[in-house]
Every structure is written in C-alpha cells, then in structure tokens.
Amino acid sequence: MIKTILVPRDAAEITRRVLATGLTLARQFDAHIELLLLRRDPDDAVPFVFGSLSSNKFRKTITDVIEHQEDDRAAEIRHRFDEFCQENAIPLVDGPTQPRQGVTASWREGEDETLLERSRLNDLILLQRPGEERRASMLETVLLRAKRPILMAPPEAQDTVGQHITIGWNGSAEASQAVSSAMPLLVRAETVTILGSKRSQQSCETLQEYLAWHDINANLLLFERSGHNVGATLLEQAHSVQADLMVIGAYNRMRASQLLFGGVTQHLMRYADISVLMAH
Fold first, then answer.
1. pLDDT tens column, 203-215
2. Which CATH class is domain 4-153?
3. 164-279 falls under which CATH superfamily?
C-alpha cells in the first residue's frame, strides 16, 4: 500500500507538473504528499577564502546574496505548492489525521542530508526525469543510498498513471525488487504487460505465474534483443501497447571509482516520456 509520497524539489519551474503526477497517484490510495524543498547552504556554495578582512567581507556579501536567492526560490515554490493544493482541494496537514481525510499534503524544508533521511521513511519518492546534474544526483541518492523506489515523472503530466503497466523484465534482483515495490499499483492496474527478450522467455513466464498468484493476469510481449538499444526498445514496446507506467530495475556499474547508472537506466532517465518506477 502506498500511503506516503515524497516529492523533493529544488526548482520552481516544474513543480506543478510533478505534483500533478503525484496527485494522480495519491488519489488511488488516499495517500499523503510531502513536498520537501532542498535548500543550498550558502557557505557550501562559496569556496573558503583565506586572507584579509576584506576577502572575508566579500565572502559574507556573496553568501548573503545566495541566501536571499534561496529565500526567493523557496517563496516561489511554496506559492506554487499552496496554489496547487488550493486548486485541487488538498488539505495541508502537520501530521497524520484521524479519521483520514483522503489525499493530504504537507511542506518541509531541509538540506541535502534531509533527502536521505526523509526518503527512507516514505513509501514512494517522486522525481522529475533528470535534466541536470543535481536532479540526477537526487535520483542516485534515493535509489542507491536510501534504497527506496522512485517514480520518475516525464516532462509532461499524464492523465493516468498505472492503468496499463509494463514490466521490463530480465530476471535480475533489481527487476524483482522493482516488481515488489510496484505491487500496490500492479494489483490495481487494468492491464499488465511483461516486456522481455525472447531468450529470457522462461524467466518471463515464471514472473507471469508469480503475478497470477496475486490475481494479476499479465500479458507477455517478447522482443528480439539485437544490437539495438534495449532502453529504446523497452520504450517502443511500451508505446505500442499504450502503457502509462513502466516498472524496471535500476542498474549501476563502477567505473574509475565513480558510480554510474547502466545503459538501460541512463536511456530511460534521458528519454522516458511515460512514468517509470525504478528500484535497486
């Protein structure tokens, strides 16, 4: 059951579109939406300056400017959040309500470490598809450090999320974790389609049987795996069945001591135009 959805934000321009996706999900479960505004620490944004009193005064001037910018940004995001909640009749609450009021929302502010703490105590984390380094870093923090499922929202809000779900399946532990995380959505879906390569047919059929035990009658759609980009193929197949959500494991690899996402995950992070639920 999905009862709490965390929406971390660090930019105002797409807040409404992400919240619209969150509301579409929350209405299915009478869930609570928590918007977490991530604020930059002005001292972290300015390199330390050694030396004279004048250089320290300059640093103080710069940090004051950054702090003022953060306040303006926070005010803009808060305005959009309050406006969205008012337009959609979503009550703002400070904590759990008894009896439950249906969809509710709350506002919280914090710095980057707050994201890790709050992510671990929410059922689902809703992020915009990464378009810049900071948002990609947020996704990495949630998936790989907090070990929580994320729902990656596309650039444009969708009318439905979870009516027709595709599962990108390869039999891996990551894919299994994604299916487990998506189960509250899978049991409610009108249609579920398993996507897999023809050489993984047996594993796909095993997943199909597993889902049947949960009263989920999943279709099977197999494709030839050639030199074609697997991420692109998964998106093409999802479009062919008019899916509005893809469930997939998030894969990573190490290179030169740097953690990187695998090719399929990276492709979806860049190009997915439907919602994608990922788990690691």
1. 999 999 999 999 9
2. alpha beta
3. HUPs (3.40.50.620)
